[in-house]
């Protein structure tokens, strides 16, 4: 029988509770939670119950649990962006292997320091670049590796963040301000930069970028817009960002229609019509999108020049109806068009009939094209054989290039597209 892995979870939010917590509840033979930490007492009590943990295994901060002697094989670090490095350092020093949420850090030096620390303590750090585990991107990579399209010359890719996701996370929510989280190109798109560089298999040499916050600011507010959607706003009827409609009334996205999971459980941890309405009246998610304290971009383009003259063009945009990724990889003998919403990867070998791969990414945990679940499967395998598995799909070392490129892209954006060299 395979060894059951033990873990602690730091941060019990959308990732710690809803993704990894759920995975663990569904895989009791494989992995067991022996300790949890969150600064939010309500979450602590609820997740403690989920895992039948005694009170002494539930800590009121990551710092507090990490001050204890090591109590598990690994730690899942699912706290907020700014805390990852400190929590990771403390956990490595205690001897935990880590599953570390992205972004690792908005400081390249801090990322490098962490690589050194992991080496010193001989611990594995898996960064949650979940896209590398998806059947969708692995199909594209296989086609490229088989030589279906010859040599890759250029890539065009779009991350469609989705208008409501932008409003939820990047205008009203936790990732709205660079100073409190990180620049959007790092926070949201380090995934994309990572996967695109992995697909072309070449390092990035130079980067430039443009982008700004076009819409979500005071001067764009429609006439009659109030500070909150709950304040008898005169613009509500025509506004696609109306929080009351989205979180409460809409039959698909609202609590009235029965929706209880993300993103409503971020608005109110136990969503009912009353609790969500109350949260909209008083909390961040009921604020008018034109009257928030956000400063991250709502669209950005990044141009990358890679080794051998290969180029990548990437666009991130809030302005799409659905959240999905699309890309076209163009090679010397063919091209690949891939749509993550339709789950289709089409290979066009020049002069031949196209081949369409329908991607099956059915997993019990929704989101990220099945990547979350597959990453956890592989993480558990690694934890069972930490001495024998050395090549990790999303090691800290491999993840850092995307962070460097993202930070250079942000520097370029702030200097109106100046070209930056990536070493
Ligand atoms: N890999 C991915 O695809 C992916 C997707 C979404 C989010 N993320 C990243 O995962 C991380 C968590 O995101 P989330 O959506 O779960 O956020 P969240 O805000 O829902 O959860 C973070 C939790 O950490 C807790 N926390 C804050 N300070 C703490 C401390 N000192 N000790 C213990 N707990 C503390 C908060 O109370 C909260 O419950 C973020 O860094 C985010 O960028 C990654």
Automatic annotation (TrEMBL):
Residues 7-127 form the Gfo/Idh/MocA-like oxidoreductase N-terminal domain. One of its GO terms (molecular function) is nucleotide binding. It holds the Pfam family GFO_IDH_MocA_C. Residues 141-382 form the Gfo/Idh/MocA-like oxidoreductase C-terminal domain. Belongs to the Gfo/Idh/MocA family. PANTHER family: BILIVERDIN REDUCTASE A, BINDING ROSSMANN FOLD OXIDOREDUCTASE, PUTATIVE (AFU_ORTHOLOGUE AFUA_4G00560)-RELATED. This is Gfo/Idh/MocA family oxidoreductase. It comes from Holtiella tumoricola.
